[in-house]
């Protein structure tokens, strides 16, 4: 006879879980004890096959899990499972609800896991796409369980009757068998206090959102007191039956509320970041790209874009054909208007590029006449070829020309202005 | 005649009997019953019977850790169990005697 194997075989695990499902109506402690015996039994049987036992072999030897459970029940003198003899419409409804609850729980876990992974690794950028269905599935699952638990003496036992509860039990048992399993479960249990605070925080956050921050703080403190009081009551099993159901329902509602609040905050942060990014982009495009001509031009005080520059020297004489550069040596090129065309509106003006270059000023202007013709390009200086009023209040900056002779213009003619000066800069 | 039907009524007695002299764990009890000739006894029935006797206070249990496999829950017949065994044995012998007499008469008559 071979020694029993310590490792659980998949076939054994599945068989035990199936038996566990059949015993779902028994009190949890009793069911757990029986399942422990069944597991020991199955392990011994599996050992006879040197561990390589299949589900079919187990069924051949012991009967189907349902038969095994029925045989065990009758010989142990346990209550028969709920009257299957009368498969009434209500019983069918309950079974359907259980299947639905199971399916919704699976959907919650699935979508929730995807949403978490999606958020952590920023895969889609829209985790709400998965978190939304997860929340909906959770609400649906909770509704199913609450409905099942209504009117039951031990509402939470309904959870154990859901299809697949046996497998969850089995998984938990295997978890406990791990060296780190028990500490991990105890650690999760110790987080209960944190949950009491968290659910109060959800209520407080909701109040702060709907009302004001001080209101939220006050509500949070109040909710914290209630939450801890209820938590301790539930822990000491002071709350049972329908009240227990109500407490768990409220917890579920708070989880949903918390998830929605978290989603809203996440969405807000994302939109704010996107907004800030857009603003930063705008700020960047306002800067002139290095080494390229000025494209956007300047706005004048009258709001019209600047499309021409008239430079007068210290004596008030108009300078012609001046090349302009900025501090970086970039040519200052103002935007150009479209070329003048016949049939344009009378008195419309068109500024054309100076033949010496795009950054040479002043530029010439076409003034459309009454017949809609462009005519000759002229130099359309706003103050003419010479500033009308000598800037007497503005002496030479270096004080060298104290005579300044501004009252005696020396170069009245525009034609006397310099030819294109050599390009500045080294 | 289906032995499994007969077994149902006497499984308590059978289980108590194989545990009378030596404690045993569940699967061990199944094997002892098989070795004794009760081939048709179902595993689950034995485990269920052990559980019922335990809850009735006729058996005590203790767990023996095993180095090579799962822990084994050993069953031991206590005072209540021995009383129960004594009474059940008496009932069985009377019943079996009556049945044997009945069956033998029938056989002789035939």
TrEMBL record, chain A:
Record's keyword terms, sorted: Membrane, Transmembrane, Transmembrane helix
Membrane-spanning residues: 96-117, 129-151, 200-225, 245-266
Chain positions covered by the region annotation Disordered: 376-426
Protein name: Uncharacterized protein
Lineage: Bacteria, Bacillati, Actinomycetota, Actinomycetes, Jiangellales
UniProtKB/TrEMBL annotation, chain B:
Domain Transcription regulator PadR N-terminal: 15-86
Superkingdom of the source species: Bacteria
Pfam families for this protein: PadR
Protein name listed in UniProt: PadR family transcriptional regulator
Species of origin: Haloactinopolyspora alba
């Amino acid at each position: 006879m071979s020694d029993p194997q310590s490792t659980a075989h998949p076939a054994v695990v599945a068989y035990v879980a199936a038996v566990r499902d059949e015993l779902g109506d028994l009190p949890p402690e009793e069911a757990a004890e029986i399942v422990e015996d069944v597991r020991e039994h199955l392990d011994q049987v599996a050992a006879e096959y040197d561990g390589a036992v299949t589900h079919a072999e187990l069924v051949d030897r012991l009967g189907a899990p349902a038969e095994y459970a029925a045989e065990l029940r009758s010989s142990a003198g346990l209550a028969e499972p709920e009257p299957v003899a009368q498969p009434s419409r209500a019983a069918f409804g309950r079974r359907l609800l259980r299947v639905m609850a199971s399916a919704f729980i699976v959907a919650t876990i699935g979508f929730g896991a995807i949403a978490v992974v999606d958020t952590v690794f920023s895969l889609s950028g829209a985790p709400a796409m998965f978190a939304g269905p997860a929340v909906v599935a959770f609400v649906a699952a909770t509704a199913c369980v609450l409905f099942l638990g209504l009117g039951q003496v031990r509402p939470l036992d309904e959870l154990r009757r859901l299809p697949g509860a046996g497998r969850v039990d089995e998984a938990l048992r295997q978890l406990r068998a791990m060296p780190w399993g028990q500490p991990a479960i105890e650690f999760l249990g110790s987080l209960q206090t944190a949950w009491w605070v968290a659910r109060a925080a959800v209520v407080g956050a909701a109040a702060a959102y709907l009302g004001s921050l001080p209101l939220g703080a006050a509500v949070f403190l109040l909710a914290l007191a209630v939450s801890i009081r209820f938590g301790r009551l539930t822990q000491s099993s002071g709350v049972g039956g329908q009240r227990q159901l109500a407490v768990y329902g409220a917890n579920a509602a708070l989880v949903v509320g918390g998830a929605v609040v978290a989603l809203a905050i996440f969405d807000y942060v994302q939109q704010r970041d996107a907004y800030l990014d857009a603003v930063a982009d705008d700020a960047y495009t306002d800067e002139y790209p290095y080494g390229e001509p000025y494209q956007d031009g300047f706005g004048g005080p009258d709001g019209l874009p600047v499309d021409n520059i008239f430079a007068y020297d210290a004596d008030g004489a108009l300078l012609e054909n001046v090349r302009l550069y900025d501090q970086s040596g970039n040519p200052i090129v103002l935007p150009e208007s479209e070329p003048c065309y016949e049939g344009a509106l009378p008195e419309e003006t068109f500024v054309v590029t100076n033949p010496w270059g795009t950054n040479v000023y002043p530029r010439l202007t076409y003034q459309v006449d009454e017949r809609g013709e462009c005519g000759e390009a002229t130099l359309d200086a706003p103050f003419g070829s010479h500033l009308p009023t000598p800037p007497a209040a503005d002496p030479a900056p270096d004080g060298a020309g104290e005579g300044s002779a501004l009252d005696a213009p020396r170069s009245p003619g525009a034609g006397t202005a310099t030819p294109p000066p050599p390009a500045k800069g080294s | 005649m289906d032995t499994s039907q007969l077994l149902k009524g006497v499984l308590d007695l059978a289980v108590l009997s194989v545990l009378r002299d030596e404690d045993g764990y569940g699967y061990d009890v199944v094997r002892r019953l098989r070795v004794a000739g009760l081939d048709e006894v179902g595993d689950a029935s034995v485990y269920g019977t052990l559980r019922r006797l335990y809850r009735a206070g006729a058996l005590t249990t203790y767990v023996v850790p095993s180095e090579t496999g799962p822990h084994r829950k050993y069953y031991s017949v206590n005072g209540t169990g021995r009383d129960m065994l004594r009474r059940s044995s008496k009932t069985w012998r009377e019943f079996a005697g009556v049945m044997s007499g009945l069956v033998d008469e029938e056989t002789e008559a035939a």
